[in-house]
Design a protein that fits this description.
SH3 type barrels; five-stranded antiparallel sheet; 2 domains; single chain; six-stranded antiparallel sheet; BirA Bifunctional Protein, domain 2
């Protein structure tokens, strides 16, 4: 289902999500499978790359261009279905430190074509982990991970086979807010 705008958009942890008109907002209902957030972010990244835009993925669910957020993804499992909500900035960058496609692309952008291409790419992904790692800007970075049980800082070693963030001490995170920390000289 696609919408022209949302009036009560939600992000992770029930945060509000700015949803001005001119951007792409849709939900994809699919079979429950592992790595859905990673697979969805790859689909968006491949679509942007086809437009000559260079995306990077910030674990677990952000698509960035030039360090600025261009897309947010929220995945929920309901019974035996996965529901993926995607908000892609097409014409409007709604928050500070975000960017939109029209600021980056030379050609006109069709929201309908973007939607079709993202869905096509979603169902065409084979090597999820390998592809995600190729796009991931978080691997190798010093980060602060904020979870409900506290904060942890360290260097990200990998994303494991279950999509968890792996720090240098082998601690693994299923979810959390990740802040890239500038490395000291």
């Amino acid at each position: 289902m696609q919408a022209e705008r949302q009036t009560a958009g939600k992000g992770r942890k029930d945060r509000s999500w700015e949803s001005p008109p001119g951007n792409l907002y849709f939900s994809l209902c699919t079979d429950k499978e592992s790595l859905l957030p990673l697979k969805a972010s790859i689909a968006v990244a491949k679509t942007l790359e086809d437009m000559k835009i260079e995306p990077r993925l910030k674990w677990p669910n952000d698509v960035l261009v030039g360090g600025k957020k261009i897309c947010g993804i929220l995945t929920q499992i309901v019974d035996d279905r996965g529901i993926i909500g995607i908000g892609l900035n097409v014409e409007v960058a709604p928050i500070d430190d975000s960017v939109c496609i029209t600021d980056l692309a030379d050609d006109e952008v069709s929201i309908d074509d973007l939607l079709k291409e993202i869905v096509h790419n979603f169902y065409g992904i084979d090597e999820i982990l390998e592809t995600y790692r190729d796009y991931c800007s978080t691997i190798g970075k010093k980060v602060k991970v904020k979870t409900v049980s506290g904060e942890k800082e360290g260097i990200v070693e990998d994303i494991d086979e279950r999509g968890r963030l792996v720090l240098e001490d082998c601690e693994r995170f299923v979810s959390g807010d990740v802040i890239h920390v500038e490395k000291e000289d």
